[in-house]
Design goal:
183 residues, 67% helix, mainly alpha, globular
Length: 183
């Protein structure tokens, strides 16, 4: 997504009532938002585009949250929604286009090509299983494996912090069950 000066609002929607300022928020959350998206979509360029879209949405229409935790939750929720929307779009496109397989040698090089192919197949398998799971459980697993704390997970998913442990166990059980049946 290319942003030109015409795209920028004449008057910023990011006001002084938001704390910290936009640039500080961007710097604080960029890496984790990008990592979450990379785990979902699996492509660096696409993850970067989606992360930029997440922050663009924050800039254009910031939520009315005063607490930084709620703002972080909003960012991760928007990011995961964008990531899953991208996966769904890929799935739709694959019905109409013949998939062209390729190995991403720039990112992942392996001295043994067979091991690299096996690793890529495993990554694809995990992504397929996540796409079959309940969206909330898939989000929970991806966010937790991206390093979010239970408190951050609770804010992102809009649930009580005390319920995250139980939800995580259920999500892991669903993943394991689907993983064992998948083939």
């Amino acid at each position: 997504m290319t942003v030109t000066s015409e795209d920028l609002p004449k008057k910023s929607t990011w006001t002084s009532t938001h704390s910290p300022n936009f640039e500080d928020t961007f710097n604080e959350h960029w890496n984790r938002v990008y990592e979450v998206l990379f785990r979902i979509v699996g492509e660096r360029a696409e993850a970067e585009d989606l992360a930029l879209e997440t922050f663009w949405r924050l800039y254009k229409r910031p939520p009315k949250y005063e607490s930084p935790e709620k703002l972080a939750g909003w960012l991760y929720r928007v990011a995961t929604n964008l990531g899953f929307n991208t996966l769904r779009a890929r799935k739709r496109r694959s019905r109409y286009e013949e998939e062209a397989g390729h190995l991403d040698m720039e990112i992942h090089t392996s001295p043994d090509p067979a091991l690299e192919v096996e690793r890529l197949e495993e990554v694809q398998r995990v992504r397929q299983i996540l796409s079959l799971m309940k969206p909330r459980n898939a989000k929970l697993l991806i966010l937790r494996n991206s390093g979010l704390t239970y408190a951050e997970l609770a804010v992102t998913l809009g649930v009580a912090p005390g319920s995250i442990g139980t939800m995580l166990v259920r999500a892991e059980a669903e993943f394991e069950k689907r993983y064992q049946r998948f083939d």
